[in-house]
Amino acid sequence: MSVPGSTPISSTSYRKLRIVMAQMDFLVGDIPGNTGLVIEAAKRAQSEHEADIVVFPELCITGYPPEDLLLRPSMDLRVSEALERLQSAEIGAAIVIGAPLRSGGLLYNAAVVIESGKITGRYFKRFPPNYQVFDEKRYFGDGADAAVVNICGVPVGLTVCEDIWSDGPVEDSAAAGARLIINLNASPYDIGKQARRKALLERKSRENRVSIVYVNLVGAQDELVFDGGSMVYDHSGTLAVEAPQFIEGLFPVDFLCDHHCQPASRPSPAVPSLEANVYNALVTGVRDYVNKNGFRSVVLGLSGGIDSAVTLAVASDALGPERVRAVMMPFRYTSDISLEDAEAQAVAMGIQYDVYSIEPMYDSFMATLAAPFEGTTPDTTEENLQARIRGIVLMSLSNKFGSLVLTTGNKSEMAVGYSTLYGDMAGGFDVLKDVPKTLVFRLAWYRNSVSPVIPERVITRPPSAELAPDQKDEDSLPGYDVLDQILNLYVERDFSADAIVAEGFDQADVSRVIRLVDINEHKRRQAPIGVRITERGFGKDRRYPITSGWKSGN
Fold this sequence. Notes:
CATH superfamily of the largest domain: Carbon-nitrogen hydrolase
Largest sheet: 7 strands, mixed
Number of helices: 17
Number of strands: 20
């Protein structure tokens, strides 16, 4: 069977084949740098692992997602130069890489095979996704044909990411004689994603009687985190090899290729707890955002509350304590417990810790505002002023010392607007932006199970913004156990108000929460980006109008 885009399949007898999965982190837009990483990794895979084939992630040459960089006039030229450099690099092993390629006037998300200094095969992704965080149809055409390429004497079917989730590409390659399938991925992390990948690969490999090599990107790009977890399933649907999540590396697997390509099984890493998995995602997101954008350090407000405590722990684990600065900014409503606990955590983690009272600045602002405020009653204006003064302090330290300000708001707060524009929302990156409050508590307990750095009463006492006397979060919000369930149904699963009430929630609570979500879209639009860990984060995932006459209900 002749397949467009393929090289002829030889009748060479099959043999042992070593494939190395290059689970790596690339920088979007750095085409020369990414090309150098590919060359270095391929040569190392050959020298250290005697690789026959080295497989890299989707669009590794540009990094993923390159977004509108793909529209730049020089993109084609830069990719062409990278491919020429790869062909002249004297790489002994065959390599399979991801790159954007233009053909017939259209741009395609492609897999490219380079062997013995020549491009011996290419494949155009047939199902570019256009949902959730994906916007590939803005840039890429739909490939039309399967590609079965002779690599090292073995017929290999090529696919790219979404192709394996759709019917057609794997099936067509298997029907065309592929002994194994190579699938290049840039699959973003969310909770439960690895389990869904495994179920899919098990079914696809078993139904089509082919082994599947699934190579995924690792690292972070803006709010997206890529967790790696590259895998190989054999033709019976059995997991043979699994690389660890959130770790770069070269992971070899041997195939005995006769009628099938049967991989040799290796021990798989232990399945991490949900909390450990999410925590690693947050650490990866912070580390890559800070380092790839060239920040020397980070600074954050440490309040003595649980959100800033978890944010500090993540930042310190991601960057090292020497690159983290925490600032306590007490006011007349700040409790002694908060002061004690903030200092205790800072000491336990060995980070730079400063205390600057905002009382004098607040009094100065209020003196200036005395005339226009005359005759009015104190309200949230005065509360927000405290938050905004703290934002000014942190941003000033950022400007002076080149530190990135980490904000500390969680997903529950962002959803209902329990935050202050130009106050606690002022900063460059929100570590917990997609983490519901109930999960924040679980992350705190998890981090303390590794080493006790967060004082226990930070986790156990009722949350408070401490912007007013005896203030508690639950004075103005439903309990977080209820709030997070309502938010999950409305924000992540698109339930209507009536459908949420039908799940057993109080009508008044549901109406109030939905109204808060809807009217605070303008705040979220101005919020810093943060690590995405759910299937529906605020930002790329959920795009609602600010100005809207939509009424909640059925």
